[in-house]
Design a protein that fits this description.
Elements lengths: L2 E4 L6 E5 L3 E4 L2 E9 H5 L6 H4 L10 E10 L9 E8 L5 E10 L2 E9 L6 E8 L7 E7 L3
Parallel strand pairs: 2-10
Antiparallel strand pairs: 1-2, 3-4, 4-5, 5-8, 6-7, 6-9, 7-8, 9-10
Organism: Aromatoleum diolicum
Protein name: YtkA-like domain-containing protein
Length: 144
C-alpha cells in the first residue's frame, strides 16, 4: 500500500512503497533491477554494452531501470532522475539515471552495487520539465 505525504512548506511529494510500482501525483513510476552481467552478454556493438560508461564487473553490480508514465499513458522521456541506493544502516550512493532509448522506448538507468540481500532503500528524485518541485518516490528492495 502506498503512503503519499505532501510535506508542508516544501511542495515536495513523497511516496513510499514496497512493490515495484507506485503512483505519485500524475506519474506512474516503475523500476526493475537486473544483474549487470545481463547487459554484458549483448554483442559488443549493442547500445546496452556501452551505456552508463560500460558494464561494470563484479557479481554485486546491477542495472537499475526506471520507467515513468504520464496519467494519459505516454512515456515521460525528458525528466531528470536521480537515484540513491542505500543498504539500511549503511551510507548511500547517489547517481543520475541516464535516459536510455531502446526499441523506441525511453527509460532511465544506471549501475549500482547491491552487495547483499538487503534490505535496500531506493529513493528516486524526479524533476519534470516545468515543474516547480521534484517528485520523490521511495521503494524498499530485497535481493532474492
Amino acid at each position: 500500500m502506498a503512503v503519499v505525504v505532501g510535506l508542508l512548506g516544501s511542495g515536495v511529494t513523497i511516496a513510499a512503497e514496497t512493490g515495484r510500482h507506485q503512483r505519485v501525483g500524475e506519474v506512474d513510476i516503475y523500476y526493475g533491477i537486473l544483474p549487470a552481467q545481463v547487459a554484458g552478454k549483448h554483442e559488443p556493438t549493442h547500445e546496452e554494452r556501452t551505456m552508463h560508461g560500460g558494464v561494470p564487473g563484479g557479481r554485486d553490480k546491477h542495472h537499475l531501470i526506471v520507467a515513468l508514465i504520464n496519467k494519459d499513458g505516454s512515456r515521460i522521456v525528458d525528466a531528470q532522475v536521480t537515484a540513491t541506493v542505500t543498504e539500511l544502516g549503511m551510507a548511500g550512493t547517489s547517481k543520475p539515471l541516464e535516459p536510455m532509448r531502446i526499441d523506441d522506448t525511453t527509460s532511465f538507468g544506471n549501475y549500482f552495487a547491491f552487495p547483499g540481500a538487503g534490505p535496500y532503500r531506493i529513493t528516486l528524485e524526479i524533476r519534470m520539465p516545468g515543474a516547480r518541485q521534484p517528485v520523490e518516490a521511495v521503494f524498499e528492495y530485497r535481493a532474492h
